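hiii, so i know i said id send this last week but things got crazy w the move. better late than never?? heres the sequnce for the chain we talked about at the cafe, plus the structure i predicted for it. fair warning i was half asleep when i ran it
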Amino acid sequence: MPDLFQHTDYRAFLREWFLEAKESSPALSYRFMATRLDIDPGFLVHIFHGQKHFSEKHLAAMIRVLKLDRRHGEYFTRLVAFGKAKGEQEIARRFTDLMELRESKVRQVESSHYRYYQHWYLPAIRCLVAARTIDGDGTTVARMLRPAITSKEAREAMVVLEKLRMIRKTSDGTWEALDTHVSTGDVWTGLAIRNFQKQTLELASQALEFTPKEEREISTMTLAIARDEMVTVQEMVREFRSKLARWAVSTPNADTVYQLNIQLFPVVEP
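okay and structure toks below
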């Protein structure tokens, strides 16, 4: 069974569990599970594919189907609540509830990710250190960012990046990046990641208004595809993202930092 405590999206966990369980029990199907859960098979499919949520009355039965012990069952219950949370305060509270049940080592990893993605300018500063010669306590970095941040924010960001071992000070007083590329992989489901993405979307909106056209590339397109082909499109986007990341790492003489956002979402009801 997939490690439940490594998940912050219960439906992603269910999809992994279903594929793994089906290998050992080929007869397993959504219809069979729907009967065990006393739920409509079509609705269950929507849950597994991230379009609907479990109701309270079905949770106990799902926990029995998954054969979860008490601790895992409680985590799964909190995971569903986190997935259904709305509003920043509720999301943050539900996220804290999840972390209480995780192992301490996992909590530390989540904490590191949260600190790194808490503000859009931390990844930007890390990339800036990799691209240019930066010295001092980071105060000058504040004016180099677009939009500019305060000197205090820049200094605090440098401290966080150093503690996370993403940058370090060299013997000549300048800073160097310890990694040329940082990625969360394809699991962008944590609270910190969601907030980070919202911040970068706001940056993109500002760039559309204030950044000269020759310094940016913002384009849009609306297309009709079969819903079943969404997985294919997602894989194409991931492949492009990976290819671009590899190219950026191998390209010498980097001297500036860009933020790349790729958005694809439905604009009509299914």
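btw Residues 230-250 form the longest helix (21 residues). thought thatd interest u
miss u guys!!
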